[in-house]
Amino acid sequence: MCDYSLMAVPNRLAVCGEELVGHRFDTGVIGFVSSSEARRLQQSRTKPKGLLEGIWWLLNPPQRRCTAVCIPPGARLLLRNVSDKLRREFGLENQAEEVVFTQTGVSIGFRDAIRIADGREISMQRLNEGVKARVLSMSSAEDTIPALEEDFLRW
User: Greater confidence, 76 or 109?
Assistant: First the structure.
């Protein structure tokens, strides 16, 4: 649902049809936030002016509190804005890729991952900040929301 490292931040369950954005939390972990929260975070990032303000900012970084959006295993997502490096490595050719959210075993490391069409799994931690996802269904058994893919490509 949410990696163990995201349990320390406020979190909630995703909603079918919701638009999400990859975000690096203060814990250093990549996870998803709502697109509206991602916009708010982007607008709040202001660079310090001058040396003293820069030092103050380093010692007292702005609070980037935000809510992690947890996705249940089996949920289907439509991913967009995947880094070129990852696209080349996994042979992702489409502008948007339908994937299934999954969890790997509870061994050492992170457990949240996505499964691409050929069955390979990619750890969430390999995704880039800014990757966009639309929740198509909360389980692999549900039908896709009509016309979402076309809409998503314009987002």
Answer: 76
